[in-house]
Amino acid sequence: MSEVVLFDELTAIHGKKIGVATLNSPKSLNALSHDMVHALLPKLRQWQDNPDIAMVLVQGSGEKAFCAGGDIVHLYKGMQNDTQGAQSASQYFCDEYKLDYLIHAYNKPLLVWGSGIVMGGGLGLMAGASHRIVTETSRIAMPEITIGLFPDVGGSYFLNRMPKGCGLFLGLTGASVNAADALHVNLADHFLTNERKQVLLDQLIEVHWGDTISLNHEKLTKVLSSLGAEVKSSLPKSNLVKHQQLIESLTSGSSLSEIVDAITTIDSDDKWLQRAQKTLQHGSPLSAHIIYRQLQTSKPLSLSDCFRFELSLASKCAEYGEFQEGVRALLIEKDNQPKWKFATIDEVDPQVLDWFFECKWQASNHPLAELGLRPIAVGQ
């Protein structure tokens, strides 16, 4: 059986090393499994504590995807086992959040090569990296509304920090964004073409890495900026920039119903907008409510508090059944006919919605209680 994550260490010419982690499940588009999380957590901690490692590169195997999301097919199969399955899903989410937080808090330069499909859990890995690369084939989305979930793995944090209206629009519509869009909404830092990847690796080997972490960050930024300047003309046009004013207008309504009505009734020939409309129309009405309240509730929260908030919300989703039904319809039986608990936005029961936002744990016994309190990479 092949390893789900391949680890390598490249030796630079001046003796320091580059840690390379490759998600190794190309058939599943490198879907983030629990085994991958279990492999990545200790290795990233080890590399952070190893003075010989100057920087880390995380990439996906194959050309189609960095990571197409969490391994929700496996989660679905587990959730068929009622309570035990929901507990297993909750543990997966918990460990995934620990990994994502580690990446956000990583002190050494951590580069994610976000080429191809980057969705859901893949974006959770990428969002917190210090140096995030997108390419001409990058296709990024948080399409959880299509499976009865919500934009997790930090969506509460990064969606709220996008240009006005973009976070809510992307959360409700699951719209796919390209490299230029990702740069616009701060989901990426640099654009390179796929053909320049080997050139990048060659140049990283040539860098005179040192013991000063801040200088190593600067050295990596310098390499990426220089290479990026050479391929600027290959950057695709941004749909979000093109429609920024419209998106602000569509999401300015005073209620979810008003906003959903505005988005779904746009009269436009633009194919990107039409796909966004269709996804919202066919998505879970309950998820739409959850996403709307999620982004309102999490606005003042720190990153660690967002992760704690989302873990409870995700665990409730694993219990309730909407998530299971969405996965069944889209990925298991593939009939694309989910039987949502509520047929429309207006039919969603406020008491059900309130239940999702009641935290499963007290602050003292929350599984992620220690996030943000001390360096997560040390002694865990």
TrEMBL record:
SUPFAM superfamilies, sorted: ClpP/crotonase
Record-linked PANTHER family: 3-HYDROXYISOBUTYRYL-COA HYDROLASE, MITOCHONDRIAL, 3-HYDROXYISOBUTYRYL-COA HYDROLASE-RELATED
UniProt-recorded Gene Ontology molecular function terms: 3-hydroxyisobutyryl-CoA hydrolase activity; isomerase activity
Any GO BP annotation: L-valine catabolic process
InterPro entries assigned: ClpP/crotonase-like_dom_sf, ECH_dom, HIBYL-CoA-H
Name of the protein in question: 3-hydroxyisobutyryl-CoA hydrolase
Main enzyme class: hydrolase
Organism listed in the record: Thalassotalea mangrovi
